[in-house]
Task: structure prediction
Amino acid sequence: MSFLESPLPSVAQGLGQSVLRKEDPRLLRGAGAFTDDLNRPDQAYAVIVRSPHAHARLRAIDTSEASRAPGVVAVLTGADAERDGLKPLPHRPVPANPFEVPLKNRDGSPIFAAPHPVLPTDRVRFVGEAVAMVIATSRDAARDAAELVEIDYEPLPAVARAVDAAAHDAPSLWPEAASNLCVDSMAGDVAATEQAFASAKHVVRLDTWIHRVTGVPMEPRAAIGEFDPSTGRYTLYAGSGSNVRGRTDVAGVLGIDESALRVIARDTGGNFGTRNNTYLEFALVVWAARRVGRPVKWTCERQEALLTDYQGRDLGSVLELALDEQGNFLALRAVNTSNIGAHAVSFVPLAKGAELISSVYRFPAACINARAVLTNSASTTPLRSAGRPEVMYVIERLIDLAAHRCGFDRIALRERNLLPSSALPYRNPIGVLYDSGDYPAAQRRVLELADWTGFAKRREHSQARGRLRGIGLANYIEIASGFPRERAEIVVEGEGRIDVMLGTLSQGQGHETSLAQFIVQWLGVPIEQVRLITGDTDLAPIGGGAHSGRSMRMGAIVMAKACDRIVEKGAQVAAHLLEANVADIEFAQGRFLVKGTDRAIGLFDVARAMARDALPGDVSGDIQRDLPQALRGALSGLADETMAQPSFPYGSHVCEVEIDRDTGEVTIARYTAVDDVGRAVNPLFVHAQTHGGIVQGVGTALWEQCHYDRATGQMLTATFMDYAMPRADMVPTFTTEVSEVPATSHPLGIRGGGEGGNTGALGAVVNAVVDALAPFGVEHIEMPVTAEKVWQAMRGHAGATR
Result:
């Protein structure tokens, strides 16, 4: 029986146990190996010259003075890249999962995927775009020389907001495209939706904008490139979301076979989606290393990161809800417009948001027009739960609006329309099949944990202190899919260690512990004896990295199958050594046993026997030497699987806020979350990731924003003085609970976790703020809900809404 089919008994340090992170001591001692910690012999240093204009024609670049500066090794431009045949970054932005709704233009025209040259030669299209690269013997020398690169720009009209860029007379970013509107897709049943709206008793509309934010990982990006002329092989050291994808993309830029490039990522300090796609600097340092004949290192500075990291959100949404007299949802229709920035890095947030627009509610009909627009801004990409926080926010705000305007209780309205567990599996009106879950139970439980019925007394207490208090609820659903192929190779080493080579990659999620728990469960060894090896394409050449909750879901399947092969092979060896039939050998708790006897041999003893080492105890070397040749070698297992079927995490969040009447300052007073991950591999980690996700979501709702000047395209929040990150003292202690309704789409019931905290937070926070402001007649307030906006809203100023 396969480990994917066998029962899962309780095992210390195994699946379902809250095991402390084994990687923490190393990281807390400062013994991590992040990219900037690495240095190569005789390395040079690169600094990128970046555009100060949001849109401008490149008329000339003069590198002569910079090239003569002390310590300068080379100055490279787009002309050099063209001469060497470098190609644009191959982002592949259109999702193509067969289980999801395809993204295609409704008129049948091809989607325009704006290219992403590593160094442009014609024009720049956002502030911070790379124009040249200076390489010198020290970072300071490279910085100084970068100031000497003379660039003749011809400024062009810029457009940074999607609503402006979509206008027919907007400045064009790409002359080869018919307009800045590069995706115009329609999904759902338009005719049935229109009919439902025509017969509805109530129609409620919300026109809103989910503003732009960025991931701000603790570790800024960095990369080192090497080239070995004797072998013709390149090496790239770079922390990322997927070093396998980085190998494919960088090889594509250089026009080389993937086997000629090795990509190594050790520790990576955060991601949140901003590192999943490849950055041009990765290709530049590898190319430069070949050009200058020595390793080249580049490290991003924080202001540079705020300008040029891939960003997220930035979705305009117009959503309408049709209801009957009793409050039953009849239909939903939407127009979602995604600002993808200057280059087509990813349409995934737009696509995934569109297919989950109906959330966990029953809708007989729905349709959505999903559009993507190019603008003079940094590119957007999947940012922690790509596209789902946006659409969950909009529908949860719309339900509260419907309750307020049509005279329904907001909790009862949700209860009436939530999909019951008996309705699942359920194909939503856009065409996505939900596998399993109990959405009403999650809502009931979060209301109980949050003491929703006791809120009135807490509001009275706040009022007695001169403060406003509000409470908000938001339900959500996720889709966990991601790159569908994963590979695991597991080797049992005779000295007492199990090496697990996997194509996923950690950016702080605790993989060294949680992935090891599967091996503890199945092979019966202490967690200290499991070593996870990732982040090196020579050792783990296949895999999709960490995104869309894929590491546990897909890693579990390939590791289970690899372990099956180890036990199958080990049983054959054990039968030979113990002089028994293979059918009489069983495996349990790290030992092969002859059924009905006390004769047994350990897993590591079998590995040593196969490696032709001496065995301890009563198993003689003579028997070992008699092992057939087919049973000698490494005790190992390999599995390589493609798994495209998604799963659907879901949950319910409740937020309470207090508001200072005099200043408009919003304080999070209480926050409660129930998140269903199917099966929690390590509940402690699920809670921790939920906490982090909530903070990220609260940050989006209240403080964070990548703010571009609407007229010039200049980014006005490129330092931490302006980009307001949440701090520990700005949030309370959270109450979180893990629900575990098994996912029927996964053999172990795993849905995926880590993104739900972020997905539910936006709607819960803003619903709470609007509830607190209800005495002032406020129906809606736009994010980020700053103190100034709240202050204006309490005084009836229109500026609070946009």
In short: The first helix runs from residue 24 to 28.
